[in-house]
């Protein structure tokens, strides 16, 4: 049987795309292939659970546009499906003069991105969150939290209920494109399709190369390590609490996040990962490490962020150093309050010259579309990313 579409990857981006395609083309034959035994086993199930409002992103970028739409649609999807969510609001807290200055720039960026932020004095901050100390803060009411694995399950259920087929434990090992069809090989089967969409997350570059695409980036994995506050502190904060980020750095800094099940996580940091999909005690893959070390972009990006990289590695090794990051704005947290919590790994596309690609990145051939870079806030933005992908796909050959 020839399929109309094959989607590779049952993370939130692949699932949102499969779901939207089936809505737009109810009679089409769509197959979803995932190498794991369940959806959301990687980034989509190992993140902070934040519905981002769209504070930080370059105005007009795909990221900025899709994040704003994404926040709206994620809240709406959770409401329709009866899934848990909470619009907690977010506080971005300045703790020194430099951060106060940066906070002003962030306020303008919020406004440029169509948000309605409020500037808070130290007293107003204390009234809202007595455990948090700062010289000032921005309140972003549109931010919140959700259960992304539950959203993934709901997208999969809807896809299946409307006639889509999903196969788990099906690792794609080859892709061959012909003028009249595209073939997807797993160890045991070959599937034929008119079009494919590849949403491979941490393995996006390998899947593109597997098909013979000439790509100019590689995925560099950055581990995000978390702690969780001991349960007695679950009511410590009501809002998401973020530091003011350094605009020269790619990640947002260690934050306090109320999770949907009631706990509060502290993190994530951003340390280089030596295994793309490794969450155990020893996370080293010879293949992943060798690929990274042989890539000039890896050395260049590491040199560019050398000081920060060393600091993150040090904080990862030394719990008191990690603690110091959060005590800047929440001084009452002690070492004994930090309990273990599972890590996640971010897929970050990096160009040969060491530039990190911040925006979402899509590459196409006549019969394929590869989502090459879908970093945070792609969980928030997944539903509109799915719309965007469908808009592109529906202009391609369907035979
Ligand atoms: C620590 C951390 C915190 C984050 N916090 C947030 C947040 O609070 N809010 C937010 O909006 N975003 C957040 N993000 C980002 C967000 O989680 C990701 O951008 C998003 O989940 C990406 O989804 P995806 O579907 O592209 O990738 P993934 O979820 O990684 O899915 C890719 C899928 O492809 C499958 N796959 C790969 N290769 C093959 C193959 N050969 N054959 C078959 N299947 C294959 C994988 O098994 C996987 O299931 C965070 C990310 C991390 C890591």
Summarize the helices and strands and which ones pair or pack:
Blueprint: E1 2-8, H1 12-24, E2 30-34, E3 50-51, H2 62-81, E4 85-86, E5 90-94, H3 97-112, E6 118-120, H4 122-128, E7 136-140, E8 144-146, H5 148-161, E9 165-168, E10 172-177, E11 182-186, E12 190-198, H6 204-210, E13 217-229, E14 240-243, E15 255-258, E16 264-267, E17 271-272, H7 286-293, H8 296-304, H9 306-317, H10 319-327, E18 338-351, E19 361-365, E20 368-373, H11 378-393
Parallel strand pairs: 1-2, 1-12, 2-9, 5-14, 12-20
Antiparallel strand pairs: 3-8, 4-8, 5-7, 6-7, 10-11, 11-12, 13-16, 13-17, 13-18, 15-16, 19-20
The structure holds flavin-adenine dinucleotide.
Residues 8-14, 33-36, 41-44, 46-50, 52, 171-172, 199-203, 207, 224, 268, 344-346, 371, 374-380 line the site of flavin-adenine dinucleotide.
Question: What does the oligomeric state look like here?
Answer: single chain
Q: Give start-end ranges of low-pLDDT stretches.
A: none
> Roughly how many Å is the radius of gyration?
21 Å
CATH architecture of one domain: 3-Layer(bba) Sandwich
Q: Give the helix/strand class.
A: alpha+beta
- Could you name the CATH class of one domain? Alpha Beta
Describe this structure in words.
With 399 residues, the chain is an alpha+beta fold. It has a domain at 1-85 and 145-216 and 356-399: 3-Layer(bba) Sandwich (FAD/NAD(P)-binding domain). Helix content is 33%, strand content 27%. The protein has 11 helices and 20 strands. It has helices spanning 12-24, 62-81, 97-112, 122-128, 148-161, 204-210, 286-293, 296-304, 306-317, 319-327, 378-393, and strands at 2-8, 30-34, 50-51, 85-86, 90-94, 118-120, 136-140, 144-146, 165-168, 172-177, 182-186, 190-198, 217-229, 240-243, 255-258, 264-267, 271-272, 338-351, 361-365, 368-373. Strands 1, 2, 9, 10, 11, 12, 19 and 20 form an 8-stranded mixed β-sheet that branches. Strands 13, 15, 16, 17 and 18 form a 5-stranded antiparallel β-sheet that branches. Helix 1 runs parallel beside helix 5 and helix 2 (62-81) packs across helix 11. It is globular. It starts with a strand and ends in a 6-residue tail after the last helix. The model has no long low-confidence stretch (mean pLDDT 96). Bound molecules: flavin-adenine dinucleotide. Residues 8-14, 33-36, 41-44, 46-50, 52, 171-172, 199-203, 207, 224, 268, 344-346, 371, 374-380 line the site of flavin-adenine dinucleotide (FAD).
